[in-house]
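hi! just following up on the protien thing from before. the input was this:
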Amino acid sequence: MGTLTVWKFDSTNGAEGALELLKRLQKQELIQINDAAYVYWPVDRKKPKTEQLHNLTGAGALGGSFWGLLFGLIFFVPLLGLAVGAAVGALSGSMADVGIDDDFIRGVRENVTPGTSALFVMSSNAVADKVIDQFRSTGATLLSTNLSREQEERLREAFAEAE
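and the predicted 3d structure came back as:
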């Protein structure tokens, strides 16, 4: 089973740097990155910019349409009336089927602001203790995960120890 995690960084290049770290850990066979994308929001821009990890294929890769839809729901969709509102409601309803609900969207929208970045990672087969030890150095804050409550709490505690 894959794990979707969303990490916030207090700089515009933090997510990109963290993804590079995860790629190195993947080469060491400490984690499998099934897919990833990140957003970064330069201070002088009205909207964030997005990047997708392009070199992935196979069943684990979510594809550009998934990331485009997700980032569109979080950052770019204007509320221009009932027709758009109904479409957004239908889209967000379909995202809820995969564990992405309105609270997730609202939480990411509130936390990713100008001058920050966020990394969205679908991963599996992580050697958790080794990955956490390395990933702590990125200064990441866990925004969301589809782990169980117990697993998520342990992950948050592991990151709190580094502060």
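Residues 77-88 have pLDDT under 50 and may be disordered.
The chain has six helices and five strands.
cheers
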